[in-house]
């Protein structure tokens, strides 16, 4: 095996292939400002008790945006077509070599009030003001609702906050 093949195998194993996961950051705008909807993973699934955004593996034949939309509907009961997404944040790379595409979706207050948690995947829903995250630029983690938001989820929030600042919001 030549050096190119060896290097390609290592790089691909580190997540340099196409993303295999997609998540969506649901943003609710209301009279009091904007909030992020963050779910807490249900008992009995990997990373149980961790705060995260709706998302999961991209199924064969799906685009990353379609996967993110499907997962948000499966986990929270909120339906949004990919073309309704506000856009895409930078892809998040984990220390395990996974790549996750990250989308942002505006959610109406009515849809947020009608959330239907999938108990097989979600134990609770946190509604955290965007202002809370903006006040902590560069933070590695965010305590919220008795949980600690960390890792990939915190990274996605940092990217979102940067986009928020660039938009002048």
Description:
This protein is an alpha+beta fold and 169 residues long. 30% of the residues lie in helices and 32% in strands. The strands form two sheets. Strands 1, 2, 3, 4, 5, 6 and 7 form a seven-stranded mixed β-sheet that branches. The N and C termini lie far apart (53 Å).
User: Which assembly state applies to the chains in this document?
Assistant: single chain
Share in β-strands: 25-35%
H/E order of the elements?
A: HEEEEHEEHEHEEH
Kindly name the structural category. Answer: alpha+beta
Q: Which runs of at least 5 residues are low in confidence (pLDDT < 50)?
A: none
Map the helices and strands.
Layout lengths: L2 H11 L7 E10 L2 E9 L9 E2 L2 E3 L6 H13 L10 E7 L5 E9 L1 H5 L8 E8 H5 L7 E3 L2 E3 L1 H16 L3
Quick recap:
This protein has helices spanning 3-13, 64-76, 109-113, 130-134, 151-166; strands at 21-30, 33-41, 51-52, 55-57, 87-93, 99-107, 122-129, 142-144, 147-149.
What key phrases describe this protein's structure?
7-stranded mixed sheet; 32% strand; alpha+beta; single chain; globular; two-stranded antiparallel ribbon; 9 strands; 5 helices; 169 residues
């Amino acid at each position: 095996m030549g050096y190119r093949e060896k290097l390609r195998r290592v790089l691909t194993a580190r997540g340099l292939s196409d993303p295999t996961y997609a998540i969506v950051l649901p943003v609710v705008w209301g009279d009091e400002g904007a909030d992020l909807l963050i779910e807490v993973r249900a008992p009995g699934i990997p990373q149980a008790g961790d705060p995260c955004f709706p998302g999961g593996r991209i199924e064969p034949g799906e685009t990353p945006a379609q996967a993110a939309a499907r997962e948000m509907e499966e986990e929270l009961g909120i339906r949004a077509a990919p073309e309704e997404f506000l856009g895409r944040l930078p892809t998040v790379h984990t220390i395990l070599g996974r790549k996750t595409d990250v989308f942002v979706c505006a959610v109406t207050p009515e849809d947020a009030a009608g959330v239907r948690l999938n108990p097989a995947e979600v134990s609770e829903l946190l509604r955290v003001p965007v202002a809370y995250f903006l006040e902590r630029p560069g933070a590695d983690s965010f305590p919220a609702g008795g949980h600690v938001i960390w890792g990939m989820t915190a990274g996605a929030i940092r990217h979102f906050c940067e986009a928020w600042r660039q938009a002048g919001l």
